[in-house]
Each structure stands twice: as C-alpha cells, then as structure tokens.
Write a structure and sequence with these properties.
Helix content is 31%, strand content 32%. With 240 residues, it is an alpha+beta fold. It has 2 domains: 77 residues, Phosphorylase Kinase, domain 1 (2-Layer Sandwich); 137 residues, ATP-grasp fold, B domain (D-amino Acid Aminotransferase, Chain A, domain 1, 2-Layer Sandwich). Helix 1 runs parallel beside helix 6. The longest helix is centred in the middle third of the chain and has 23 residues. It starts with 5 loop residues before the first strand and ends with a helix. Bound molecules: uridine-5'-diphosphate. The site of uridine-5'-diphosphate has 13 residues, from strand 9, helix 2, strand 12 and strand 14.
C-alpha cells in the first residue's frame, strides 16, 4: 500500500491516506514535544523506536485478545493501520502516583495504588486537553454510555496485559495514555501508539525513569533510555 494525501500532521507523526479507505499509514518522526507542544526536541532513532515498539506491543496485546488498529509494519518508521474515527478522549490509566496526579491532588510521587485509576481528557489542543468525566463526554456527544463502558473495560484489560509485558522487561508501568477509535464497522479498537512517549516506565529495581519525563524535565539520557527500553523489549520478546 502506498502513501497518498497527508491526512494529519501530529506532534510526533504524520498520517497518510492510502488507496483503500479502510487503511492509513503512520509515519513516525524523530521529534519530541512536551507541555502541549511548548517544548520541542528530537533524537535520531526516536521515530524508529516508537514505531517498532508500538507495533510489538500491539501484537502482544492482540495475543491477549485486545483489538487494535495495527495491520503491518512497512518500514523502520512507517506502519499500515486501520483507518478509524478517533474518539476525542485521552484515556489515562495510573498504577502509581506521578505527573499531573501528584500536582492535582498533592500526592507523593511513587505511591502505589490499591486499584488502578482511570480518567478522561477531552482531546482538544486549543483547550489544553481539559479533564472531563463520562457525563461531560455524553454532553459533548464525544461518546455514548456504551462506548464509555467498552473503553473502560478495554483500558483496564490493556493495563493488566501491559503490566505483565513490561514486568518481564524489569519495568514498572506507572501510568499511560490510550486513544481509541471506531473502525469502518463501528467497532472500538485501540489506536494511536504505546511507547515511552505515552507511558511512564520505571526500572523495577532502581525506579530510574525510562520515559519522556527525561525530556520533559531535562534529566539527561533522553535517547539512551528509549534505546534501553527498546533493547529490553527485543531481548524479552525477540521479533514479536
Ligand atoms: N500522556 C500522553 N499524552 C498527553 C498527556 C499524557 O501520552 O497528552 C501520558 C504521559 O506520558 C503519562 C500519562 O499519560 O504517561 C499521564 O500523564 P499526566 O496526566 O500525569 O500528565 P503529564 O504529567 O504528562 O502532564
């Protein structure tokens, strides 16, 4: 399948139409952004890592019965995915207190929750992705009650699979963001990407941060930790 017109330019990837209305092509860039695009950086290889890592994780999730948009890796930076209508919700699951959870509620970073939490943000850059609850999502006609029920069930199931996938790599899954879309049949599938850009990942022994927080907060070793996570994934799962 070939790339045709550019459908969308995101902060870290471009999305192209293909000759089939059922599919599109993701092209991952080396760019990194944080704080709603206010901070910008990059390193050689980031696009390749995020592409290959997201694909490997989608394949592992599919084995656990999770439906995703993933179809086929086309090159180091390009993948064929199902074309979906993205539901404009950022779905965040947390297992351990960090980031905006600590800021908002005054919680200490690193506190392990008895149960994972779920929250939704309205995916809208101009508004700064405001936090919303499910009733706001119904009012905004972003999702129906049935959609939210499916999304919650899928998100918690994905959390269980991802925790297991990362623990094998000696990594604690702190929190992460998911996006869902509806495919041509109206079925909700996991979309977007799962990578160190969208997850907080801490080394299981040392709690060293192995994710985008190193870029957000100028902690150094930004590219090194992405390569570290990618190497651990290859060691544990080989060519998935
Ligand atoms: N996240 C993301 N994209 C966003 C917002 C958050 O991928 O636009 C991820 C982030 O990397 C982290 C989790 O979602 O793993 C929770 O982020 P949080 O709400 O703590 O926001 P942050 O502290 O990143 O502003």
């Amino acid at each position: 399948m070939k790339k045709l017109s550019l459908l969308y330019t995101g902060k870290a990837k471009k999305v192209y139409a293909t000759e089939s209305p059922e599919y599109c092509i993701f092209e991952y860039k080396d760019a990194a952004t944080a704080f709603n695009g206010q901070k910008v950086g990059f390193f050689d290889g980031k696009g390749m890592i995020n592409n290959k890592m997201a694909n490997a994780i989608f394949k592992l999730l599919e084995k656990d019965g999770i439906k995703t948009h993933f179809v086929e890796e086309l090159s180091d930076r390009e993948s064929l995915v199902k074309r979906v209508d993205i539901i404009p919700l950022e779905v965040i699951i947390r297992n351990i207190a960090a980031g905006s959870f600590c800021k908002r509620y005054g919680s200490e970073e690193g506190v392990v929750f008895d149960k994972p939490t779920i929250e939704f943000s309205y995916k809208n850059d101009a508004l700064g992705d405001p936090l919303i609850n499910s009733y706001h999502a119904y009012a905004l006609k972003i999702a129906t009650e049935e959609d939210v029920k499916t999304i919650k069930e899928m998100a918690f199931a994905i959390n269980e699979s991802l925790k297991k996938i990362f623990l094998k790599m000696d990594i604690r899954l702190v929190d992460f963001k998911l996006e869902f879309g509806k495919d041509v049949n109206g079925e909700i599938v996991l979309a977007d990407e799962i990578s160190p850009d969208t997850c907080r990942l801490w080394d299981a022994e040392t709690n060293k941060k192995l994710d985008k927080d190193r870029f957000r907060f100028d902690m150094g070793e930004f590219s090194d930790v992405y390569f570290e996570v990618w190497n651990r994934l290859k060691e544990c799962y080989g060519e998935v």
